[in-house]
Amino acid sequence: MSTTTVDTHCPYCALQCGMRLAPRAAPRAGHASAGASANAVAEAPAEAPADAVAEAPAEVVERPDFPVNRGALCGKGRTAPAVLSRAVRLTGPLVRDAASGELVPASWDEALDRTAAGLARTAEVHGRAAVGVFGGGGLTNEKAYLLGKFARAVLRTPSIDYNGRFCMSSAAAAHQRAFGLDRGLPFPLEDIPRSGCVILVGSNPAETMPPALRYFTELRENGGTLVVVDPRRTRTAEQADLHLRPRPGTDLALALGMLHLVVTEGRVDEAFVAGRTTGWPQARAAATAHWPELVERITGVPVPQLREAVRMFCDAPSSMVLTARGPEQQAKGTDTVGAWINLCLATGRAGRPYSGYGCLTGQGNGQGGREHGQKADQLPGYRRLDDPAARAHVAAVWGVDPGDLPGPGRSAYELLDSLGREVRALFLSGSNPVVSAPDAARVTGRIASLDFLAVADVVLSETAATADVVLPVAQWAEETGTMTNLEGRVVLRRRAVAPPPGVRTDLQVLNGLAARLGWEEGFPVDPEEAFEELRRASAGGPADYSGITYRRIAEEEGVFWPCPETGEASAPHPGTPRLFLDRFATPDGRARFVPVSHRPSAEEPDAEYPVFLTTGRVSAQYQSGAQTRRVDELNAAAPGPFVQLHPQLAEQIGVAEGDPVAVTSRRGRAVAPARISRDVRPDTVFMPFHWAGEGRANTLTNPALDPVSRMPEFKVCAVRLEPAARA
Ligand SMILES: Nc1nc2c(c(=O)[nH]1)N[C@H]1C(S)=C(S)[C@@H](COP(=O)(O)OP(=O)(O)OC[C@H]3O[C@@H](n4cnc5c(=O)[nH]c(N)nc54)[C@H](O)[C@@H]3O)O[C@H]1N2
Ligand SMILES: Nc1nc2c(c(=O)[nH]1)N[C@H]1C(S)=C(S)[C@@H](COP(=O)(O)OP(=O)(O)OC[C@H]3O[C@@H](n4cnc5c(=O)[nH]c(N)nc54)[C@H](O)[C@@H]3O)O[C@H]1N2
Ligand SMILES: [Mo]
Fold first, then answer.
1. SUPFAM superfamilies from the xrefs (predicted)?
2. pLDDT in tens, 77-103
């Protein structure tokens, strides 16, 4: 490796693809070298030449040696440095001017003073619980950890949650219930091609994780079979040996129908069930009520296809079920994932090599972000906030009285829905809920009714634009930190370039706020120092990072948790790429079947709203689009929202390709051009959720919540369609 390049990781999804950055030379000053400390505020000229402002300060070069992606990157990763350029981002703090109502530039002292005062005043007048914190699964482990500490120890508020609640929380809850531990994938991605059959449920890696598609291609090249369950014929489904196209929201019935066939066809692995599980009689009884013909009526999947899926899954020597947001983002997401886990357990496809259930976690640090304490019910190390021993351990690391730690708070949507009422001041970091929250018009109104809002972001997102204070922060390639990818592999994102001079890191922001609220110490600005504290806080917890160090990560291409400290330098814990091979993480070591039954979605189509709406992603845009909508090449590939609909439906409502379609739900109305395609079921329309404004999909979505995970039903609601006037 040349000394001028830096090995780091992509800013976007949970693969955390390895990439190498070559910083561009002058005119931009302040480039850091590979080993530079991330908290050193770089010296750069206050006024850079115009071309330096628009130009990305680094270029991506291939890094073929990182195992997850072996050099492959998607279009978003390849173009990621464009978001580092000063032309598209925030370069100094902004505060809302009382006279004009506009956001105007301010000094860091003024911005931080106003934020600390805004939070403190609300706590004084309305109580500590009236101060809220909202985090993100894209934040590094160090940031997520210190954000949780800031809420629990400094603000002493229960009101903290984060956007990961909208992401993989149903799978996380089902994992906990069945296995006693939640790590999205219990095995590395490299095990996928060695399996005999993979059922991919509501996951479209061809668009959402393109560099991972090769694992599924290799599976088939090795003679394995791929089954895809998706209401749409996606680019992923095109690769499948068998594509099941259920009605949205019916995956629970589908999985139960498969389990029914497993029982009636005598394919239960009795020895595995007897030796390694509990609760089978109840789960079997629940499944036997789901006859194939009934399941066909509910799901629309013909019985022969259901049988074929069972045959592929059970004939293979090893098999996996992988879910993503399709089955999870439902008001019954936890039970749905539970049903797929039951299928794996009944057939002995869990806790064995190349077999098992896994969730393809979504955000860059979707895994680590759910382990270190920004979730409403959780303390670092994936400890429970309501567990006295966990409270005592973490309170000791923080130097506080365990009795002073607040209890569990509201889930993300419930927190957002309480704004302006119970929660009256909010510190938000790493999310853009004006675009990404369900029933977004309602949430936007709630945000506007806050007494005080501060947003830490890289860009002026739609949510930041409504804040009282905007704190501009450094991003991925400008600071060092760890991320835990979807495999549970903790990787080191290294700093490659200096942030612009007016920008601070999230750790510096938390340090500045904590200091103003009476915590002169305890909020390190050096990421490695923060990680050292996180190691201690996580020690002994389910997600134990105590044996992981920056040095080890760098030497080992990442380390899989749990990785406890052994206390012996010569015999470190190797990390845990594969979980559950000997025992599950439950008290008795056995996996738990959970009896589940099908139930309808919170909102089914009816005469007034006759069509299913489902939502998701396209390859060239990321999430709320805050970052990717600022990259020309990505906008050229995916310029705006659209409504994907079947030709039959298009004809019925009288729209042609490209015509504006009005989509109305009980929550609101959105308009976007028609994209007519046989790839979607005639009873269903699909909208990506990456855009704000008139085409915002989340104006329509239903905030009905899963009773266990509190996941909103992003994937199913009922809508009406009609042609709209051309703008
Ligand atoms: N390009 C891009 N990549 C991303 C992201 C991004 O925004 N853009 N985001 C990242 C994040 S945070 C996440 S969580 C992941 C998400 O990754 P995925 O889960 O793969 O993405 P989605 O498009 O949300 O949903 C996947 C599929 O679910 C299908 N689906 C809809 N309703 C149902 C249903 O009821 N049942 C079933 N079985 N399927 C259904 C949709 O048709 C869609 O093809 O992607 C990550 N990668
Ligand atoms: N209809 C519908 N809605 C959905 C979904 C769906 O499938 N359908 N999916 C849901 C899912 S899975 C997810 S994960 C959410 C995601 O939705 P959001 O939570 O809105 O996620 P992002 O758009 O990634 O927002 C991250 C914000 O953090 C900023 N940021 C980036 N890096 C940093 C950093 O280092 N520090 C700070 N402070 N900020 C940073 C970005 O600029 C951006 O503004 O959307 C959910 N919404
Ligand atoms: Mo996500």
1. ADC-like, Formate dehydrogenase/DMSO reductase, domains 1-3
2. 999 999 999 999 999 999 999 999 999
Q: pLDDT by residue (tens digit) across 114-123?
A: 999 999 999 9
Return the pLDDT at 726: 79
Strands (E), 437-499: 452-457, 469-472, 481-484, 489-493
Contact status, residue 356 vs residue 322, Cβ threshold 8 Å = no
Going by C-alpha positions, the residue among 14, 298, 294 that lies closest to residue 138 is: 14
Q: Write the pLDDT tens digit of every residue in 297-312.
A: 999 999 999 999 999 9
Token pair for residue 627? 């970052």
618 CA to centre of ligand 1 in angstroms: 9
Closest ligand 2 atom, CA of 436? 47
The b/e string for 260-277 (b: 16+ C-beta within 10 A; e otherwise) is: bbbeeeebbbeebbeebb
CA distance 688 to 698: 9
**Strand (E) or helix (H) holding 644:** strand 643-645
β-strand 717-723 against 611-616: which pairing, if any?
antiparallel
The span from the CA of 356 to the CA of 352, in Å, is 7
Write out the two tokens for 208.
């959402």
Helix, strand or coil for residue 414? helix
Q: What is the pTM of this model?
A: 0.96
Cβ of 614 below 6 Å from ligand 1: yes
Which residue shows structure tokens 């310029």?
A: 639
50, with CB counted inside 10 A (0-12, 13-18, 19+), is exposed
Give 191's strand partners.
none
The pair of structure tokens assigned to 211 is: 């560099």
- Position 43 scores a pLDDT of 39
Q: What does the H/E/C string look like for 81-125?
A: HHHHCHHHCCCCCEEECCCCCCEEECCHHHHHHHHHHHHHHHHHH
689, 690, 694, 695 alpha-carbon torsion, rounded to 10°? -50
| Cα 661 to ligand 3 centroid, rounded to whole Å | 27
Per residue in 594-605, pLDDT (tens digit) is 999 999 999 999
**Residue 438: is the preceding peptide bond cis (ω within 30°)?**
no
Secondary structure (H, E, C), 299-352: HCCCHHHHHHHHHHHHHCCCEEEEECHHHHCCCCHHHHHHHHHHHHHHCCCCCC
User: How far apart are alpha carbons 243 and 87 in whole angstroms?
Assistant: 44
CA-432 nearest atom, ligand 2: 20
The residues that bridge with 644 in the sheet, in sequence order, are 675, 686
Pocket flag, ligand 2, residue 626 (CB < 6 Å): yes
252 close to 562: Cβ distance less than 8 angstroms: no
Residue 251 and residue 326: Cα distance in Å, rounded?
9
Q: pLDDT digits over 485-517, tens only?
A: 999 999 999 999 999 999 999 999 999 999 999
Q: Which pair of structure tokens corresponds to residue 443?
A: 């949430």
Q: What is the CA radius of gyration of the chain?
A: 25
Closest listed ligand to the CA of 231 = 1
Determine the length of the chain. Answer: 727
Ligand 3 midpoint to CA 114 (Å): 32
Which amino acid does the sequence have at 719? V
Ligand 1 pocket, 199 CB below 6 A? no
